[in-house]
Write a structure and sequence with these properties.
Nucleotidyltransferase, domain 5; 9 helices; 22% strand; binds zinc ion
């Protein structure tokens, strides 16, 4: 790795960033609210972060949606405000900052970070699931994170788990994302954070809500591991602090359903809330 890399993870509510040195070690990190005005405003934010950084030699940005990996244009980013369809993101960012730039789906960024530096370090194959405002996913095979033209390889969040369920941001009904994301955990009167906090304090209704989401997640992960013949899943993302409470239900579903695969492991992400930003920075080295 040559030079300092800026990695930025644009989330539905917060944008996280890291600076990595030549060895991939973190020099600095931070978080700021995501601008709601769309891609041009996000580019201004990234340019500000780059200006405050120590002249990064490359900038990697992770976004929660589809990108054209060949051109660096954004395609479909439903959880961030503004019109992202067909926006020439890396071209505009590189021009604005005079720095080479790449863009990657946030699920793949999480996977790359956890594969190189975190819970899946040294593994050849694993399924990655990142649960936030929505649910992202990715696969590693042969020690590399797989990606395709629309950067939606492994998008487990849009697997249908309830045929007649709620409408998803993607247009489908009953996607995993509609039953197990932070948005799905929220109620009419409480945010996902408040539901998680109430569950931690013993409120049975909130605890049941989180348990149900954990089971749905576990079911989808079990089915996907069976389909792939993999035995390791890494689950990360904030889920508004509810992930530790969801993990036992995920593990229980796996124990029930994956006997054919031998011992399966669900590892929580090891890199914490900046995993996506770390992966975005690493993608400037490994990306197209
Ligand atoms: Zn969907």
């Amino acid at each position: 790795m040559t030079g300092i890399r800026l990695g930025v993870d644009v989330g539905g509510s917060a944008t996280k960033w890291v600076l990595l040195d030549e060895t991939g070690a973190m020099l600095d990190a931070g978080s700021t609210p995501t601008p709601r005005a769309g891609p041009a405003a996000v580019i201004e934010l990234v340019a500000e972060l780059a200006a405050q950084s120590k002249e990064p030699t490359a900038i990697g940005v992770a976004v929660p949606g589809l990108v054209d990996t060949a051109s660096g244009a954004t395609l479909f980013i439903p959880n961030v405000g503004g019109d992202w369809a067909g926006f020439p993101f890396t071209e505009r960012l590189a021009a604005r900052t005079s720095t080479p730039a790449t863009v990657i789906n946030d699920g793949r960024a999480f996977a790359l970070a956890e594969l190189r530096q975190g819970a899946a370090k040294g593994l050849s194959e694993a399924l990655f699931v990142v649960v936030g405002t929505g649910i992202g996913g990715a696969l590693a095979v042969g020690g590399r994170v797989l990606h395709n033209r629309r950067d939606n390889f492994g998008a487990i969040g849009h697997m249908t788990v309830r045929p007649n369920g709620d409408r998803c941001t993607c247009g489908n009904r009953g996607c995993l994302e509609t039953v197990a994301s932070a948005r799905a955990l929220a109620t009419k009167t409480a945010t996902a954070e408040q539901v998680a906090a109430a569950a931690a304090q013993g409120d049975p209704t909130s605890a049941r809500r989180i348990l149900r989401a954990g089971r749905e997640l576990g079911l989808a992960i079990s089915s996907t591991l069976a389909f792939l013949g993999f035995s390791t899943a890494v689950v990360g993302g904030g889920v508004a602090g509810a992930l530790p409470q969801m993990l036992p239900a995920i593990v229980a579903e796996l124990d029930d359903r994956t006997a054919m695969l031998g011992t399966c492991h669900v590892h929580p992400g090891a890199l914490g809330p900046h995993a996506g930003a770390i992966g975005a920075a690493l993608w400037t080295l490994e990306g197209p």
